[in-house]
Specification:
Shape: globular
Structural class: alpha+beta
Oligomer: single chain
Largest sheet: 4 strands, mixed
CATH architecture: 2-Layer Sandwich
Number of domains: 1
CATH topology: Ribosomal Protein S8, Chain: A, domain 1
Strand order of the largest sheet: 1-2-4-3
Radius of gyration: 12 Å
Helix content: 25-40%
CATH class: Alpha Beta
Number of helices: 2
Strand content: 15-25%
Order of helices and strands: EHEHEE
Length: 84
Amino acid sequence: MVQNLTAKLSPEDQQCWTKTNRTAAMRDKRCVRIIHDKGKCSERKLPMLKGKIGSWLRQKHEVRALCSGRTNDGRTGAVYLPLK
């Protein structure tokens, strides 16, 4: 299952996560991939969004771990999330 979050974290992103997690559970999916982009919109072109999403997802009790995507799956602009 794939979810795309390429904008800044917002209440809509949180709702999107809730819907994605619920859908994954209903479909008996144990892993999801979230494409978040790196968010290099800062003045220094540093990846801001990547860190925010990583720390946000680490707080979710449904997430066992997270790791960056494979080269053809978005590399560091995406994460795999094994779910509980």
